[in-house]
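Job type: complex structure
Entries:
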Amino acid sequence: MSLLTTKDGTRIYYEEHGDENRPSLVILNGIMMSTHSWATFLTDFSKHFRLILMDFRDQGRSERKQSQYHISVHVNDLVDLLDFLNISKGNIVGLSYGGQVAEMFAIKYPERVKSLVLANTPARITPYLAELGEAWKEAAMLYDGERFFKLAIPFIYSDLFYNRNLNWLKERQKTFKSTLNREWFEGFIRLISSNPDFNVLDELHKIECPTLLLGADRDIITPIEEIEMIHEKVKGSEFLVIKDAGHGAFLEKSGEFITAVIGFVLKNC
Amino acid sequence: MSLLTTKDGTRIYYEEHGDENRPSLVILNGIMMSTHSWATFLTDFSKHFRLILMDFRDQGRSERKQSQYHISVHVNDLVDLLDFLNISKGNIVGLSYGGQVAEMFAIKYPERVKSLVLANTPARITPYLAELGEAWKEAAMLYDGERFFKLAIPFIYSDLFYNRNLNWLKERQKTFKSTLNREWFEGFIRLISSNPDFNVLDELHKIECPTLLLGADRDIITPIEEIEMIHEKVKGSEFLVIKDAGHGAFLEKSGEFITAVIGFVLKNC
Amino acid sequence: MSLLTTKDGTRIYYEEHGDENRPSLVILNGIMMSTHSWATFLTDFSKHFRLILMDFRDQGRSERKQSQYHISVHVNDLVDLLDFLNISKGNIVGLSYGGQVAEMFAIKYPERVKSLVLANTPARITPYLAELGEAWKEAAMLYDGERFFKLAIPFIYSDLFYNRNLNWLKERQKTFKSTLNREWFEGFIRLISSNPDFNVLDELHKIECPTLLLGADRDIITPIEEIEMIHEKVKGSEFLVIKDAGHGAFLEKSGEFITAVIGFVLKNC
Amino acid sequence: MSLLTTKDGTRIYYEEHGDENRPSLVILNGIMMSTHSWATFLTDFSKHFRLILMDFRDQGRSERKQSQYHISVHVNDLVDLLDFLNISKGNIVGLSYGGQVAEMFAIKYPERVKSLVLANTPARITPYLAELGEAWKEAAMLYDGERFFKLAIPFIYSDLFYNRNLNWLKERQKTFKSTLNREWFEGFIRLISSNPDFNVLDELHKIECPTLLLGADRDIITPIEEIEMIHEKVKGSEFLVIKDAGHGAFLEKSGEFITAVIGFVLKNC
């Protein structure tokens, strides 16, 4: 358990797992996630990689900020962390919001990315995504973990996941209720407010490293068609679809997710 | 503009359009809809049909109730209306919640249904649907049309519809804000609370009239797989999918919806 | 049973069914079809329309030609037939190859098309379609109905149709064996050789009449994506997908096909 | 380049690549393939695995047989090869026909399979597949590589692959013409005739090793729904779909195929 103070003085939480002589695997969380979200993935990933997990500012155990920032600030934080860890060129995996950060990082610092995995990641905020952001902000402003769970989570997991894992989801709802405090919601609102203008479509051609795109057939937040646009612009990118899963595909179908990440990164090492 | 007082003393609003010698077309609304929702459909439908629109109790201009009821109560209301209008055997079109009522009606009174169109209609409340119901109830309990619109509507229309019709949706949001009052929300909550146990899968085989199922490829509320179950159980049923549309397919792709309804009903008259 | 001699002296077979005061419905066959293919559709269509069926030259009971022609020759034949029948403005339904003829007709004579239905129709011959044409030509040059059936038909009907209707298909195979003679194959080869350069993508915007596109989710000859291109170029066109069907959707799911055609044409009359 | 004489006296061609201390990867070819088909995959696979390629009897450089056999004979050949190579428990990858052999092997010798990858593999010969087999047999009996290519290959690769790789396909057609001799066709006919009754659906539950299913969204030979059946019966199996590819997905999208195989096998080692 470690904290890094970034150049702008923000304390960023990160974790390292696995042998440091192995290829790196740096995972950037989705907006509602944290390093905690990877607990059940540690064994598989640390067997093959030097695994680096981090919480964005306003996530998990990283520092809560007082004022609004732009999503690009996380790119700086990532640079600081990779510098500190002496990772000159990393294998970067980003999910959704974390994938947006990964896209910006790969566009700005192509020399620092050995391979890139973008899971359920958009290249732009469509009007629909902007409205979803508004819905989540509205739900967050109730400052009530249980109500937030009820209102926001049905967008994330597929109907199939709900139908098969209702008990688990009800437990999660209780966890949300007991752990999400006002500080968490304020951080979440800053995160969700950090990227209304996000659109890297015209810069994606700068990504020339091996790139894997992961989509899910029931993902309504980053539908296949939006990921297809990335596929067309990132030359040579691979594209795998996880079947019967929603936006939370990494969790709904964790086996397939781990298979794809391990295979793609090791192939390109 | 007419009101019928049903056998249990409830005032039900209904409208008739078109020549009464034409084949009937009785439309049952989705849960957030009302007879108003059909304004732009009147010309096409009344050219070919004796069109009957009605508001369920707690919808539109029908009476608001004080106590909770079961969804099956609407079946009785429909019987009373058809009796009053001297429609011994009607062509029934139901959307979503209205489709559930249509299913129950066709199962209980097969002799009164000439043909049946079920648009974006489930045959059972899955755990996911139940949770969606909870989310909508939660959103309704804010008693604020604008916030309700923000929280509930992104489940209904597809991302593509949002991306192409944002201005129209923003206008709708204003209408929700100005017109949805406490009375409306209380009615909506009763409607959404009326069918937690809904499941007619084992009775669908009793439907023997010509039946058309309409689905939409981006409908997450009644996904294609759920409609497929109806298709398997209703012998000889037809199944058309509206492409690039969500649960609100009748509005997102009104041309295709009208085409399918007119064609199916006239073919079977 | 009637023959019309066209302006260039070719005898074209056509049929009329239904009351001639009803709206017209002119059906243009797919390449392996003939007026015979519509036997089981006559009742439904003639109830609502003045139904006109025709065999293209080299099809069914129309004249076999000795020399190669371009697909556009059928447009002239269609003009001659409509003139003869006094149909100044018709409702045109084209399937596949017949849909290509319908596209050319609607582009060249927009004033003569009241509404247009394009079922499983391409707007261009892709390299894949050209190779399929070569495969069919190769199969035809065996001049053996049974072997032709075995080699060519699995491209047309979906696996699901084969799995559910194997006996019917085996009967069809026998019919092919007993009825397809050298003359038929030579005609088929001319038809399949008449459109290697077909591409109307840049002219589709000239189609301004009500247009319905019918696709099928398992159609590999005219996949959804190709039809999507037409949808984008023909302003206001409707698009319905027939589920669980291949290129032979009109037969695999005849109910859905009839529903869509009746509804669309009557709506626009 | 090595030949193994199996217990029944058949010479089976096989190849070994990569460090023999690495995890094994035993690849079983599709019906039209041979060890040659893997030329461009050697680098990626041999970096991570002790790669074993083999030609089934009647394939590639293995012995041509004179009489018909059942597909299960290859299971015996595989046992002999693994015994000879001292592979007590292997990672088995099967494609299509090779996947059927892999299924039978895993069902009969579960203790010898460490992990299993079934790519574009059916669990049963449906009526449609049987008819496809007849079509291919018919095409093979022309004993002409060019005509065989024209008639049989459009079932295998997707339209998108044809549209993007026409020149490559035309080169392949020339290779077929120059290399497929009567001996090859007779072998192919025996292979395609070896499994008319294949159906392991009721035995799939015996497969308990880690299993990855690979499908392709445009595969008409082993459509997603057929693979879904395997997914339901093999407990804990993973399922990845390769987008925009047909039955020849391993070649159409070789990057995605290699990613999935490397990731899945290494994860389970």
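Summary: Chain C touches chain B through 26 residues (CB under 8 Å). The first strand of chain C starts at residue 2 and ends at 5.
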